[in-house]
Specification:
The protein is an alpha+beta fold. The protein contains 2 helices and 2 strands; from the N terminus they run H-E-E-H. The longest helix is centred in the C-terminal third of the chain and has 35 residues. It starts with 6 loop residues before the first helix and ends with a helix.
Length: about 80
């Protein structure tokens, strides 16, 4: 899977025993490991939550736009 993650960051993950599985719009990096003793990559909870907040904000905005447009279309068909 192709990722937009810099090679230096991928190398850092791999040296720590983690493998990059993928990414989501360069907002979230998905990693995994088979080594139960691999060191934690994200030790600061705020850094872990930040991309999730960004993704959820984008998702909420998309749904709001969808529902507003959906209501506008439905209202337009009801009044004609």
């Amino acid at each position: 899977m192709a990722c937009d993650i810099p090679e230096e960051k991928k190398d850092l993950y791999e040296r720590s025993g983690w493998h990059v599985v993928g990414d989501y719009n360069s907002d979230l990096v998905v990693v995994c490991t088979d080594d139960p003793d691999a060191p934690e990559i994200y030790t600061d909870p705020e850094l872990l939550v930040k991309p999730l907040k960004k993704i959820s904000s984008k998702l909420l905005a998309s749904w709001l736009i969808f529902w507003l447009l959906s209501g506008w279309v439905n209202f337009g068909t009801l009044t004609t």
